[in-house]
Design brief:
The protein is mostly beta strands. It has a single domain, classed as YmcC-like (YmcC-like fold, Beta Barrel), CATH 2.40.360.10. It is about 15% helix and about 50% strand. Strands 5-4-3-2-1-12-11-10-9-8-7-6 form a 12-stranded antiparallel sheet, sandwiched between helices. The longest helix is centred in the first third of the chain and has 9 residues. The chain is globular and about 45 Å long.
């Protein structure tokens, strides 16, 4: 289970996205994702460069269904929300390791309330929870959904973080709404209850996003 992140390298990855290149779509969301994950096609975003020069914390990010990945740097932390920026200026917002928004990737997650899940997962508790999410559709409309979830502690699992093997607690979150089901996975270090790796569903278009901290 700890090998969910073999596609990530500890540098910005410039990929020829075969999946994207072979897809035809009436809306431009695929082009937006391609641009966000192909920073070599243009100059780096100034905000990204500024954060990188300050040796800001880094986060590896992979869009699993697109077989594509990049490296983010943390631009800011405000009220418990971390804003991570890509070389192209796209941003990912996280709260304690939980993805709460994606901006600049086309259709996707606009906002999420993950308080119940976050409390249970970081504490290693099992049981039922709710989460709420608002998504931007391909038609530039917003849809808000309520998900009923079940949290399960799957025990110890090892994660490869850089050159080190980290022992973590694997937590699973199985959620459903009227029209969606998904499963999120979180690897949590028991010493400080920190998420070091995850696989999280972010909506119909982007699908699952994997994250891993950079040592």
């Amino acid at each position: 289970m700890g090998a969910v992140f073999p596609v990530i390298r500890a540098a910005i990855i410039t990929l020829a996205l075969a999946v994207l290149a072979g897809c035809a779509n009436d809306d431009d969301s695929f082009d937006v994702v391609r641009a966000a994950l192909l920073p070599g096609q243009q100059e780096f975003d100034a905000r990204f460069q500024a954060a990188a020069r300050q040796n800001a914390p880094q986060l590896k990010l992979a869009l699993l269904q697109f077989d594509a990945a990049t490296l983010l740097v943390r631009e800011s932390r405000r009220d418990g929300i971390d804003t991570w920026i890509s070389a192209d200026g796209a941003t990912v917002l996280t709260q304690g390791g939980f993805i709460v928004a994606l901006h600049g990737f086309g259709a996707g997650l606009l906002a999420a309330d993950v308080d119940q899940t976050r409390t249970m997962v970081t504490a290693g508790r099992e049981g039922a929870s709710e989460r709420f999410a608002t998504f931007l559709t391909g038609n530039d409309e917003t849809v808000t959904r309520t998900f009923r979830c079940v949290i399960e502690n799957r025990g110890q699992d090892n994660v490869q973080i850089g050159a080190s093997t980290v022992s973590a607690r694997l937590m699973a979150e199985d959620c459903l709404s009227l029209d969606n089901t998904f499963q999120n996975l979180y690897w949590v270090t028991p010493a400080d209850n920190r998420i070091v790796q995850s696989s999280q569903w972010t909506g119909d278009f982007i699908g699952y996003v994997a994250t891993q901290v950079v040592p």
